[in-house]
Amino acid sequence: MSTQARGLQNFISDLRNAKSKTDEANRVAKELANIRAKFTNSQSLSSYQKKKYVWKLVYIFMLGYDVNFGHAEVVSLVGSPKYSEKQVGYVAMSLLLKAGDSMMNLVINSIRNDLVGSYDDAATSLALVSIANVSGIELMNALHVEVQRVLVSPNATPAVRKKAALCLLRLIRQLPDSIASKEFAEHIANLLQDRHLGVLTSTMSLLIGMASKHEMEYQTMIPYAIHILSSLVLKRACGADYLYYRTPSPWLQIKLLRFLQYYPNLMSSGQTYVPTLKQILARILNDTDVSDSINKSNADHAILFEAISTIVVFGDNGDVDLQNAAMRLLGKFISVREPNIRYLGLMTMSRLATLHNASNKEQIKTYQSTVVISLKDADISVRRRALDLLFVMCDGSNAESIVDELITYLVAADAGIREQMVLKIAVLAEKYALSKKWYVDTILKLISISGDQVSDSIWHRVIVIVTNNPEGDLQQYVAQTMFDVCSSKTAHPKAVAVGSYVLGEFGFLIAEEAGKSGEVQFKVLQQHWAVVDSATQGIMLTAFAKMSNLYAELQPIIAPIFLKLKTSVDIELQQRSNEYRILAGLGPDVMEDILREMPAFDTEKVSTLEIALEQEHTETHDKNIFSKKKQENGEGASPTRMVGNHAANPPPGPPPALEPEPDLLGGFDDEISVVVPPAAPPAQKAAVGISEDQIPGMRSSFAKLCSSAQGVLFQNAYVQVGLKSEYRGSQGRLQLFVGNMSGTPFNNLKIHIPEVPYLRTAISDESGPTGALTSAGTLDANQQKRLMIMAEAIAPYADVPEVKISFETDTETHTYPLRLPIVTTKFTELLTVNKEAFMGRWTQLAGKESQEIVATGVPGSPERMQKVASLLTSLNFGRCPEVDNATSVSGCGTYKTGAKDPSGKNISVGMLVRIEANADKFRVTARTLHPTVSASVKTIFCAALKEI
Amino acid sequence: MISMLYLMNARGDIVISRQYRDDVSQATTDSFRLKVLGAKEGGTSAPIRSIDSSTFVYCRHLNMYFVAVTRSNVNPSLVLEFLYQKIRVLQAYLGETFTEDKIRNNFTLLYELFDETMDFGYPQNTSIDVLKLYINLGKQKARVVEDQASLTSQITGAIDWRREGIRHKRNEVYIDVLESVNLLLSQTGGILRQEVTGSVMMNTKLTGMPECKFGLNDKLSVEKDKNSSNAGKSGVSIDDCTFHRCVSLGRFDADRTITFIPPDGEFELMKYRVTENINLPFRVIAAIQEDGQTRVSINVKLSATFSEKLFASSVVLKIPVPENTARCKIKTTMGRAKYSPEDSAILFKLKRFQGQSESMLSADVTLMPTVNKTAWSRPPIGLDFSVPMFTASGVHVRFLKVFDKSGYTTNRWVRYITKSGDSYNIRI
């Protein structure tokens, strides 16, 4: 290039020599002005000049300046017949043009000519490369057929074929549906018989890209892949060009193995190639040696680890001998000094350890001490892997020793790994606890060693377990221990938090003992007051409240504390101290009742710790077979998931004891809002709204209307609001009746339905459609106003639309915000399926469920189940009785929306719901494709079940 | 109060630091480096940043940051004033544009200055004249202090900015009135913002401890004198003014006279601001028309409104053109003009511009068509100038009287100059 553009070189050296950013920007501005001046009459430019200025533009663009002209010159260069110009044009095009630029259309034709019309390999390759790099949707739509044609064309040279395969890979990553997989598989099969290893490697990249999306379509490629693999591994047939340090094309080998990993059931398929595959894997395992050349051994190890990954993927269907051999080999690797190999060894071993192979499990335990050494490695990533492996290899027999080992190490561990360690120790301790006391001791040890890393969920868990196990002397033991821990002035704030809670709850169990009276307990806690954070102080306040209830002698000491904190800056402390102070004045009975011991926690939940762990495991690489597997199999396959009865989803929040004041609106504040109308209107009329005592009634009439077509939505002394509804598919027609019961006329009656994004609504009254979603007018005494509402669902939603009715009488203004029972299930169409279909869908949607437990307080009976079943039908779900037993009811339906998908069909969402009864409780599980729909269906059922 | 003071270069290395209190650690400088310098926000955002309960107040000199760290609720303008004064002190010792290397070569001096100007986080004496009495390194060569004993009484006395016994052969006072005009005119010629900020600089070479009385044609003081001599003349209404600390504010408040015992040498006597009745020195009439996507035609007339006896020097008119300008054809009646792509503007330069004269510029601009069409933002025309012996506010010095026991006569020299401020813009 030095001969071809002096000006360019000078320009670049000017920019390099620029002293500051502004100098550079000025030089660029000058150059751009120059190029603009030249390009205004581009006809007179020679090809040399054109090239030179386009190069400059490209360079300026790469420096990050905006280049918004010169595209026409670029396009003309692309179309030029000379290679040197074409090359500049393509480079500039792939940088300067973006997908969606209007200039794109002009280039597409030139590219197409280069792609198919030209017999020049170089031009075709340029075209392919730039298609891959620019990859705009229009470009792809216009050219993907040509690219495929080039790839399969019999005349194409290997170089072009390689590029075409890779270009196609880029295309299908963006437009996955551009290739008809079935037909294309044949072409791929042809390509896989190519003798050129380069073509094979590129084709394998393409194949992996495609198989990661539709693996079933490419199952027929397996024999070809195994054939190539066997010729590489067993026969070592490979041209000299593709030998890398005497290893035959390691990249191709790795790609082939990775492709095979998409078919985990391969080994058990009984096909003829299975023995060959075993032989290949065995050969890789046995023949890999440590070589002098670092490149050689890197290549060999890469293949080896890929082979082991393949064995892991084949999993329990695979060959046990291979697994054992792999395990032996990994055992060797995890004790070598080279950290990279050790890292890979540890990682692969922890994958291998998840297989349910008994001999494997035993074997892995023999490496425990080796792994522990790696835990002390200088390299943090090695330590992380070692920790993962220890976590996976832990089971009932070695849990105690591993946990002890980890705790010993935790003392010395640095901050980078501590948090993960603490989490893992906590999970292991809980999972394999020999006794509850041991578990509690372990967590306390964790807090004392590394309290800052102990997340709230860990110690919340301790409290849940202690509270739920009133048998034996666990609670007393814990109270005792916490008392001892908190007695020390230097106790960790987290320990103080646990201590406060435990002594508040179970302190009375040890109060009889000498030197541990309530007063002493109080003092032990109070000494930490100044050093702990406000959340802990809040827990302490609750503990104090409980203590002052238990020990009369403490009341005069504790009351001033509440009094003082009444004006605390911390709003939480302020609220608590106020509440507890007033509580003390409500009399001993109320106090007794509210400050009673906490009931057992709901144990139908998975430990939240595991959820935290799960989150850490999520990987982003979409092609990785391991993450893919995890997504597909959902719960069952994930190695860290605990089997047992402690388990679950909703985040725990602080222990419920923190809110002793009964919440007036319960958990359903969002269901009905008590509106205090904004400051009285000018006429000084008294404002009237929904009174609080009507709320339960409204809630139940709302729930009834969810499952029936007509009824009364709201009623008081002034007004009655009734509703009649009719639904068909995604559309519904409602009639809203507003009756004046007061005896005086309503002035300025307004009925307003705020617009919501998920519903298309229109309303009309007697006089015809009203423009906005509002109807206004007057209503005389004992008259009724009727309003038609048309609604069409266009998106999933969880909340419901509102209607706001407001009017004025002579003395008062009334405002009633009411929730309209236009819920998801109204747009549902009943669906009846058989058992297989139901169970199939059910497991398919395993990850997408929404669950809640409803306590009704009415004991279960067969009649009640009958009611539940009819409820299901009234909510437009079809029952599926074959999957049910005496205590469960399941059904399914389709949620219809008026929104169109790209193909013009209405979008609908299939929904499955299952209600299981247990004593007076119901567990409602809704599974649908869409999380909002799941949540919404669940909420509707829960509300309805309460009314049964 | 200030806990630590340090200088950091643009790369984030600490050049020199001095810790006055131990409630902050050296490690806090790291957070400043990362959050302020690392984020490349130095110079673009507020000069005060609170990071982890430490507050950093900083200003920039060349490529160095002067940073004061505090953990208490200090008066930020005090800290900033101190930092700027600190820079002035260093400039007096190390030269106007002192660099990092200069500092590295004079660590002893620097530490001495750090200790002398601040004690336990409280600012101390920052007067250059006084400091150079006893810190005699760098540019400030050793001066024989006649009486070491008088030093203490001077520093702690009522007039610490001037010492006794100064002698000059000729008693002279130079007064410079410097004004800068900021202006923003709308397209239609309406005034959106106009403001003159002025400062009175003084250079005194006077013997003994003279008391000076200074008078401007300020409206209030003129009105007060009306009944005596200056009847009939109206003064300038000064919006606000600040004085050098040698001016006795009590007297000013009582009868609007500016009396002071001046420091020896150069100092800024007062600063003021005027926003009414401003005589704009130039009028600009611009017609800029965009013809379609590819042409812009520009016609600008610049006329000077000040007296024809005066002249303006280095007048630069910056007429913006679109970013994608390809060619400009420019014609002028006087002065030179050319397209400058760096500013994306036409720079119209006139070295000397007589009062009451006018100059025209017309230009035809050809634009390059661009891919993504964005409308031109039409930034305002900017104007740079300086007009000697002209004050845009109309302020002039009425008198300066010098009283000394010895009763010597004083030569007084007065100069005026008006410059364009940071923004003298006309919207188009």
Automatic annotation (TrEMBL), chain A:
Q: Which InterPro entries match?
A: Adaptor_Complx_Large_Subunit, AP2_complex_asu, ARM-like, ARM-type_fold, Clathrin/coatomer_adapt-like_N, Clathrin_a-adaptin_app_sub_C, Clathrin_a/b/g-adaptin_app_Ig, Clathrin_app_Ig-like_sf
UniProt keyword list: Coated pit, Endocytosis, Membrane, Protein transport, Transport
Binding-site residues, a 1,2-diacyl-sn-glycero-3-phospho-(1D-myo-inositol-3,4,5-trisphosphate) = 6-7, 38, 48, 52-56
Is Magnesium among this UniProt entry's keywords?
no
Superkingdom of origin:
Eukaryota
List, alphabetically, the Gene3D superfamilies matched. 2.60.40.1230, Leucine-rich Repeat Variant, TATA-Binding Protein
Molecular function as annotated in GO: clathrin adaptor activity
Residue ranges for the region (Disordered) are: 617-664
Spell out the Pfam families in the cross-references.
Answer: Adaptin_N, Alpha_adaptin_C, Alpha_adaptinC2
**Domain Clathrin adaptor alpha/beta/gamma-adaptin appendage Ig-like subdomain spans what residues?**
703-817
Biological process according to GO: clathrin-dependent endocytosis; intracellular protein transport
Q: Which SMART domains match?
A: Alpha_adaptinC2
Q: Where is the composition biased (Pro residues)?
A: 649-659
Basic and acidic residues bias spans = 617-633
Compartment list: Membrane, Coated pit
User: Sorted alphabetically, which PANTHER family does this protein's record hold?
Assistant: ADAPTIN, ALPHA/GAMMA/EPSILON
Q: What does this protein do?
A: Adaptins are components of the adaptor complexes which link clathrin to receptors in coated vesicles. Clathrin-associated protein complexes are believed to interact with the cytoplasmic tails of membrane proteins, leading to their selection and concentration.
Question: What protein name does the entry list?
Answer: AP-2 complex subunit alpha
Name the source organism.
Answer: Triparma columacea
TrEMBL record, chain B:
Subcellular localization is given as:
Cell membrane; Membrane, Coated pit
* Annotated protein name in UniProt: MHD domain-containing protein
Q: What is the membrane topology noted in the UniProt record heading this document?
A: Peripheral membrane protein
Q: Which Gene3D superfamilies match?
A: 3.30.450.60, Mu homology domain, subdomain B
GO cellular component labels:
clathrin adaptor complex; clathrin-coated pit; plasma membrane
The family annotation for this protein states: Belongs to the adaptor complexes medium subunit family.
**Origin, by domain of life?**
Eukaryota
Q: Which residues belong to any copy of the MHD domain?
A: 170-427
**CDD domains (alphabetical):** AP-2_Mu2_Cterm, AP2_Mu_N
Q: Which keywords has UniProt assigned to this entry?
A: Cell membrane, Coated pit, Endocytosis, Membrane, Protein transport, Transport
Instruction: Cite a single GO BP annotation.
Output: intracellular protein transport
